Amino acid sequence: MPDEKSPSRQMRKRTATREAIIDAAEALLDDGGLDAVTLPAVSDRADVALQTIYNRVGTRDALLLAVAERALAANREYMDAAYARPGTAEERVMGAAAAYAAFAAERPHQFRLLASPPDVPEALERIADLTDEQNGKLADAIRDGVADGTARADLDPDLTATLLWAAVNGVLSLSWHVGRYRHDVDELLALFASLVADGLRPR
Where is the HTH tetR-type domain (predicted)? Predict the structure, then answer.
């Protein structure tokens, strides 16, 4: 029987504690947004000492980065599934937009964390890397459409992909606005889909 203090047992306990801390931070994010994720609140939620958070994860910036990494992984699952589906450029672009909208609707705080990330250099860099990766896949879908004649030949795939991502991101971000700038996101996405379809089709 392995000793309770064996390296493997200790490693599992450290890993479990780290995951519990990040779970607590995610739960706080879901309950109250980014401002709710403080180290004392995480300490209470995870029922661990503050020093344990520093030992297992690090500072608040490191904790936010860990939460952002989970959001990045979740977003990649949504988007990769969308890009894996075959279809015309229009169908693939619309599929990607629908997947991103589903991610925003089903995981609103994770979406907000990626759309409006904390001012943590490493998190900003990782999120920028994901954006470049996903925009590259979107550009490839448009590029394929240009090649097979289902998309306009005059489109710059990379520039168009960046514009489409920025537009969808902006529309989805309206969901957390209040007052005159809060809109029916589904209605706006439907209008976006119509305009994009017209804009992508060959003349």
Answer: 15-75
